[in-house]
Amino acid sequence: MELRHLRYFVAVAELGSISRAAQKLFIAQPPLSLQIKQLEDEVGTSLLIRYPRGVRLSPAGETFLAEAKDILLRADRAVRLARQTDNAAGGVVRIGYVPTAGHTILPRLIRLLRQRRPECDIEVREMTTAQQIQALRYHEIDVGLVRPPLEAGPVVVAAKLSDPFCLAIPKGHPLVGDAALDLRSAAQCVFVSVTRQRGPAYFDQTVGLCTDIGFNPNIRYESSTLYGVLELVGAGLGVALVPASAVTLASDRLIFRALSQPSRVGALVLAQLKEDPNPLVGLLTELTAQVFTELSEELDRLVVGLRDEPTVRTEQ
Q: DSSP letter at 44?
């Protein structure tokens, strides 16, 4: 049994079709069918139930699929670790990040990593928090910039930044002030938001901040990026609930006011697997903590009414 047999089987199982799998794998359908039949002969049982249109897993195939995926992940991980060991001065690191961290945290982190490890091969993937947790568990990424909460399990928090939601307001707006804001005072405002499809957890948290205190936000404008949201607010189309870290992206047309006694705590964390053997993970934890510390100082200076409390933490 070879790894290619497992890769072929996984592709067929996930797509539910030998023809579609053949297209994805860039091989002809008859050879792929033959490879799957050879695999079944070696296993000694049918793994797929064939239909005129497509296939589905047999009970034995369902069991085999889980093990096949695990074997492939371990094989890929073995190759990656071998390359890292052979290239200690460089190495490979894969970073996941939520969209709101892509503009604020990620560029700073990559810049520091390049300074310390100029030969390092860096891979980045924009993903939701849920997708990153799954990717960490399956060794598809090494670290993730995610927003809590995280479920108990093998994924741990290595560094944490308090990144509470605040209200972005165009200059000259009636809600501009010099202290933390009671969000109820924005109940009659038009809101701008990131689309839920792009950031479901972020969208739900911002709406929840409003519904928790008794009103539904009038979201009239949406954007697929945080930059877009800030531009629409700067144009005077409305106000927006955004992470405090968004202040580093904003023009001088905006004011950011912290929320007084918010019902939900906002944070950004660096997540990783316990005892990850990748030597770059420890370095990333150090550099991320540095970025978080620098950013927290900026937030205290730039966000009106932000509470004076510890905003960054490194966990062992």
A: T
**In this structure, are 275 and 148 located in the same domain?**
yes
Give the end of a domain, one of 25, 53, 83: 83
Q: Model-level pTM greater than 0.90? A: no
Measured between alpha carbons, how far is residue 26 from residues 18, 130, 183 in Å?
12, 31, 55
- Residue 53: give its domain's CATH number: 1.10.10.10
Q: Give me the long-range contacts of 84-90 (CB less than 8 A, separation at least 24).
A: 84/278, 84/279, 84/280, 87/119, 88/279, 89/117, 89/119, 90/117, 90/119, 90/120, 90/121
Residue 83 parent element (H or E):
helix 59-86
Residues in the chain: 316
Q: What is the mean pLDDT of each run of 10 residues along the chain (316 residues)?
A: 88 90 87 90 90 88 90 80 60 89 92 89 90 90 90 87 94 92 96 88 91 96 92 95 92 92 90 84 94 93 72 50
Domains in the chain, number: 3
Asked if residue 214 and residue 249 are part of one domain, the reply reads yes
